[in-house]
Amino acid sequence: MLKIFENINKLSMVKQSKINVNNSEVWIYSNDENEDFICLTDMVKGMDGESVNIDNWLRNKNTIEFLSVWEQLNNKDFNSLEFEGIMKEAGLNRFHLSVKQWVAKTNAKGIFSKTGRYGGTYAHKDIAFEFGAWISPIFKLYLIKEYQRLKEADNDLYNLEWDVKRVLSKINYHIHTDAVLKHIIPKSSFSTDKKWIEYAKEADIMNVALFGCTSKEWRVANPQHNGKNMRDFASINELTVLSNLESLNAEMIKLGTEKNHRFKVLKNSVSSQLELLKNIDLVKSVRKQSNTTYVDAQEKTGEELDKLTEGDILDKNKKALSEFNKKKKKK
After folding, report:
1. Are residues 232 and 319 in the same domain?
2. Total domain count for the chain?
3. How many CA atoms, within 13 angstroms, populate the side-chain half-sphere of residue 169?
4. How far apart are CA 331 and CA 328, in angstroms?
5. What pLDDT is stored for residue 209 in this prediction?
6. pTM of the model
7. Which regions of 42-198 does DSSP assign to beta strands (E)?
8. 140 with 187, same domain?
9. Which residues of the chain register pLDDT less than 70?
10. Domain finish residue from 110, 135, 154
11. Range of the domain at 145
């Protein structure tokens, strides 16, 4: 029993993804064995009865049989004797079985309930697909389609390249901060506890040159992306250019180049590099909004891709952006 709950707790610490199934956001957790567990609670959210549907599904004798077959194929610790006792009761009017009871009695690992943030009932993808069919055949097809798109995105070369470029930009940032530490901090007028401002100001020189706004401006205009910054939504090409800017700005800092001149050099470099990279591969100019961004982009025409690459990085939340621009004009 302890082993099961250790596995459940471990699941909360590994990879999580989200798919949109028939206008419902459904969370997926992947464990360290690369097994995916889909949130059944999300699947029934907004439906009549919501989580009661899960209880009703578990009362079904066919469901119990399916769960037992899955466990026997995938779980060497499954308690078959307890299962037989449950089957004798299944189908009777008084029969009731919760997920926690099923796990406690049979040592099952294919379905479980989780509390806390992102809590709910989760099931292995095989079981979740079966539950989707119980909801409706159409829902099951939507679920399978979106899940397959997620898996396709995980293996998509564009997504893999985005991840590499993001890592490289973070590595190059250390080169940049080292230059700030050795050549700007010693001359800084800020007190010791405020010297971080110098790092932020230098980072924003590159942000403005590349994205057209500071980090703070982006956060104010995009409150729905709490904990992230514009670099998390950059295109592959922008991340490539960002890595180059970090190295370029670091070298100019070492040479003692004046800040205004550095900004002009960086801005000109951005324009020429982005134009060149866009002509090589237009898809890489599309900003990443989700795991399936580049899967979707590859299905679009050149004209549609052009429109995607023209959007301002501050345009996600129109209300917040409008309020932000009004405050900016007053200043």
Report:
1. yes
2. 2
3. 23
4. 5
5. 95
6. 0.68
7. 111-114, 120-124
8. no
9. 1-14, 315-331
10. 154
11. 2-154
